[in-house]
């Protein structure tokens, strides 16, 4: 058989684009590979376009790690590409045979893949289908990247919206679960059908490295739907990486596999450089180990002990010396070599999993730490530089978000009941600074004039006096925040008049660090970043980007950033949904941070009334706000992807595969089922919406502000909802929202989480008029009577289906059941503690973390599964910056 003048020797394989043959070129005396597009496909515009695209792409690149093209032939009803013949195996075959590759081998292959992609990207070419099956290893072990049939040039079709452009589906999509083999390598933006660029190749590159190191696909699941759901909503199993993989390899993978392309590694050349440096370091380490082994063999088997003891003693001496320097030289310490060590929690307790659990005093002499005591309560501890022991501060139970006075003599913190307190670092009773209960806090800062700025989970930043007494006053206006979900993490600059803060917007493109003048109200964007920020006297602001703690040069007088940020720590614990990162810095060149925690974020788990686990719903994922349908067969839940974007998903309680319900890039939250289970209302970005629960038909806007739905009336005639800064609860007709709304609940403090009784005659809700969250019942809609159910604080009321029992969470996370008799005579029974709920009660005001079965015998709880890691302290981190100049 001949194709043009080529003599076909053997058939190598077939795929969706045609058949591949081994052939002999008699003119040049060499073997080639010929990819043939059969005549049956010549009239298919898409097949021809992909075939011609591959020819053009390969003709534009000449690189040793990309399979070359020799020509194009048209003969006898065929169209054929004449390609370089690569004798060897695919990387997919190598992985299948080996299980996983040695780290050195995997990095050598990864470096060559990166070189190939770098050459393509420099030509403006995006591969779009990188996978082990499209990576050849010749007999000499060299890499050849092949199959550019889905590649595109910059300026080409970037929509990614058609089936033809998707490498994940069969043409016409007629067979469920059958794919071309690349669904597991899709970037999140490809899976969503959005425009793609070279960052999609970087994502696939990370998938390939992960597969080489672990022997398993990072998002490999049983079906296409499962794989795409994992890509969009789950994190890689970082624990699957081999123990001998260097930390910088895991960090590179994290940067490649960041779901938000804005935070992903932007250039494959940076990955190549990192891999080259890692390989060089491994070679140096190997040489050093071989030399040490040689010395040890000459000195005898016991020779290691003095050297090991010397290393330990030297490290301890450096730490003690650094602490002493901080005491002697104060804020002027900016020279020397960085000293880095790990700090374990005090005694037998554990650090709280919240991000803002630690704060360095400005003078660097003290660390404020929030750690759970033996009873499981979060308590404030202080560890000073002149002692090895941490001490507990009495009266700081349920402490959160510590922050320091500018003279380092007092610690401010948020306490149970939504109040702000301060306590002297040397001890003494805490002083309460605010009277009313606040919504979920996110951070605070304190200037020399005694002004404290604080932020909440939503809305503007407020100010109070460090002396207490006055009510909080907003300093960032609601008008300014119209398109903003939250103003968070304020940080005063040295003049005490201007402050930095993080703005989280409906559109993430508008997120960033802003500078605002406390007196004039003038503000402007200064840094594109999505985390809390610290200004330090070395002339830097610290924030987290792509998991790395960055030091950005910043002129506090001009209020502007300059130069490039420099990473000073890798893989810092970060909560993308809120922008909260676990770090704090002093003015003495000291920084403390917690490493990122890998593994599942939460698990939807059923418990009986005794707290025994009786089953799970779905796979572990970053869930929020589970809400069971009225028949308890389905579950609406928020699911957070790696970029921090939230969407509503629906789960069948008997299956594990979630179905996506909302699709827009805005943050969607707080799903609520109608009483007949046919509709779901939710908060969507800048408005409130409703849509059929089966997904059919479009969404309909209920309110033009991002207000939060609470509950539907049993007959479907009304919907209860509240604003982001809740003091009132309103009622509207969801079938005619333009007819207006009616206020049904009002409070001096926070009034929210309203739940209508099954008969529609009573409403239970959370109220903070007393200065602490409590559960209240009152008549509906007359409000003729009002009864307090909880006695020591409560959140998240839920009714049993017959209305004879009410459930709520205590402020320390215990689930309570209360018998109730409702009628002419209202009787509130004795509260019964069922079990510790294991739910995020500190954010219970916003995220409802449990639901109840119809008969009240089972409870679906969003249990947190967080491994709280130790913290790392680095003294004189500015030396890292100086060393990179």
Brief overview:
This protein is of the alpha+beta class. It contains 10 helices and 64 strands.
Describe this structure in words.
The chain contains ten helices and 64 strands. Helix content is 17%, strand content 37%. Mean pLDDT is 80; it is low at 155-181, 287-335 and 839-847. The protein starts with a strand and ends with a helix. Helix 3 packs antiparallel against helix 5, helix 3 (103-122) packs antiparallel against helix 8 (268-299) and helix 5 crosses helix 7 (247-256). The radius of gyration is 30 Å and the shape is globular. The chain has four domains: 2-84, Phosphorylase Kinase, domain 1; 88-280, Orthogonal Bundle (Transferase(Phosphotransferase), domain 1); 316-339 and 346-598 and 868-883, Neuraminidase; 602-864, TolB, C-terminal domain (Neuraminidase). The strands form 16 sheets. A six-stranded antiparallel sheet has the order 1-2-3-4-6-5, with helices on one face. Strands 13, 14, 15, 16 and 17 form a five-stranded antiparallel sheet that branches. With 885 residues, it is of the alpha+beta class.
């Amino acid at each position: 058989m001949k194709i043009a003048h080529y003599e076909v020797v053997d058939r190598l394989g077939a795929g969706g684009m045609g058949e591949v043959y081994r052939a002999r070129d008699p003119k040049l005396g060499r073997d080639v590979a010929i990819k043939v597009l059969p005549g049956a496909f010549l009239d298919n515009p898409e097949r021809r376009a992909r075939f011609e695209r591959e020819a053009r792409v390969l003709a534009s690149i000449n690189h040793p790690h990309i399979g070359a093209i020799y020509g194009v032939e048209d003969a006898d009803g065929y169209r054929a590409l004449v390609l370089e013949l690569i004798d060897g195996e695919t990387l997919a075959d190598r992985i299948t045979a080996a299980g996983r590759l040695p780290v050195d081998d995997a990095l050598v292959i990864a470096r060559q893949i990166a070189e190939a992609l770098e050459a393509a990207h420099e030509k403006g070419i995006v591969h779009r289908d990188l996978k082990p099956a499209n990576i050849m290893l010749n007999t000499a072990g060299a890499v050849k990247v092949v199959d550019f049939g889905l590649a595109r040039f910059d300026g080409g079709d970037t929509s990614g919206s058609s089936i033809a452009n998707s490498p994940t589906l069969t043409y016409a999509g007629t067979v469920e679960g059958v794919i071309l083999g690349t669904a597991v390598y899709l970037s999140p933006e490809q899976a969503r059908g959005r425009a793609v660029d070279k960052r999609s190749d970087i994502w696939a590159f990370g998938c390939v490295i992960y597969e080489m190191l672990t022997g398993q696909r990072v998002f490999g699941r049983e079906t296409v739907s499962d794989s795409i759901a994992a890509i969009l909503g789950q994190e890689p199993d970082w624990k699957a990486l081999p123990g001998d993989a260097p930390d910088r390899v895991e960090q590179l993978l994290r940067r490649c596999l960041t779901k938000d392309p804005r935070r992903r590694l932007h250039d494959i050349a940076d990955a190549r450089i990192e891999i080259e440096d890692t390989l060089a370091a491994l070679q140096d380490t190997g040489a050093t180990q071989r030399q040490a082994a040689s010395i040890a063999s000459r000195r005898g088997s016991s020779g290691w002990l003095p050297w090991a003891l010397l290393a330990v003693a030297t490290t301890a001496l450096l730490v003690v010396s650094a602490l002493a320097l901080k005491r002697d030289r104060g804020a002027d310490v900016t020279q020397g070599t960085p000293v880095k060590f790990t700090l374990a929690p005090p005694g037998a307790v554990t650090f709280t999993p919240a991000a803002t659990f630690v704060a360095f005093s400005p003078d660097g002499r003290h660390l404020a730490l929030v750690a759970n005591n033996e009873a499981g309560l979060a308590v404030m501890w202080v560890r000073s530089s002149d002692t090895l022991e941490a001490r507990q501060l009495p009266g700081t139970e349920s402490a959160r978000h510590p922050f320091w006075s500018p003279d380092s003599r007092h610690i401010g913190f948020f306490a149970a009941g939504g109040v702000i307190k301060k306590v002297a670092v040397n001890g003494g009773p805490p002083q309460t600074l605010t009277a009313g209960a606040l919504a979920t806090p996110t951070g605070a800062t304190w200037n020399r004039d005694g002004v404290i700025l604080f932020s909440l989970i939503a809305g503007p930043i407020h100010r109070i006096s460090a002396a207490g007494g006055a009510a909080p006053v907003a300093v960032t206006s609601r008008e300014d925040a119209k398109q903003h979900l939250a103003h968070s993490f304020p940080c005063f600059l040295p003049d005490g008049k201007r402050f930095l803060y993080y703005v989280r917007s409906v559109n993430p493109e508008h997120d960033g660090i802003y500078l605002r003048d406390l007196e004039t109200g003038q503000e402007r964007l200064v840094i594109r970043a999505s985390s809390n920020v610290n200004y330090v006297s070395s002339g830097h602001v610290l924030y987290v980007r792509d998991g790395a703690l960055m030091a950005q040069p910043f002129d506090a007088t001009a209020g502007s950033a300059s130069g490039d940020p420099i990473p000073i720590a890798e893989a810092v614990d970060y909560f993308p949904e809120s922008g909260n990162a676990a770090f704090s810095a002093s003015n003495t060149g000291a920084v403390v941070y917690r490493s990122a925690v890998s593994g599942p974020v939460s698990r939807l788990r059923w418990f009986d009334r005794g707290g025994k686990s009786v089953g799970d719903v779905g796979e572990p994922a970053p869930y929020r706000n589970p809400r069971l349908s009225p028949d308890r067969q389905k579950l609406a839940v928020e699911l957070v992807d790696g970029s921090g974007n939230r969407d509503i998903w629906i789960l069948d309680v008997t299956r594990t595969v979630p179905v996506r319900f909302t699709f827009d890039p805005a943050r969607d939250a707080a799903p609520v089922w109608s009483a007949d289970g046919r509709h779901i209302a939710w908060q969507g970005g800048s408005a409130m919406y409703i849509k059929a629960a089966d997904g059919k038909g479009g969404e309909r806007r209920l309110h033009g502000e991002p207000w939060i739905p609470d509950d539907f009336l049993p007959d479907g005639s009304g919907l209860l909802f509240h604003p982001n800064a809740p003091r009132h609860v309103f009622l509207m007709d969801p079938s005619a929202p333009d007819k207006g709304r009616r206020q049904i609940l009002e409070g001096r403090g926070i009034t929210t989480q309203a739940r209508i009784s099954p008969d529609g005659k009573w409403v239970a809700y959370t109220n903070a008029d007393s200065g602490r969250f409590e559960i209240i019942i009152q008549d509906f809609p007359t409000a003729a009577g009002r009864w307090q159910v909880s006695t020591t604080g409560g959140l998240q009321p839920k009714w049993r289906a017959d209305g004879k029992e009410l459930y709520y969470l205590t402020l320390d996370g215990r689930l309570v059941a209360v018998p109730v008799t409702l009628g002419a005579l209202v009787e509130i029974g004795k509260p019964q503690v069922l079990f510790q709920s294991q739910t995020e009660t500190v954010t219970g005001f916003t995220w409802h973390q449990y639901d109840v079965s119809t008969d009240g015998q089972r409870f679906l709880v969003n249990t947190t599964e967080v491994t709280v890691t130790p913290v790392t302290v680095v003294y004189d981190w500015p030396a890292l910056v100086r060393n990179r100049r």
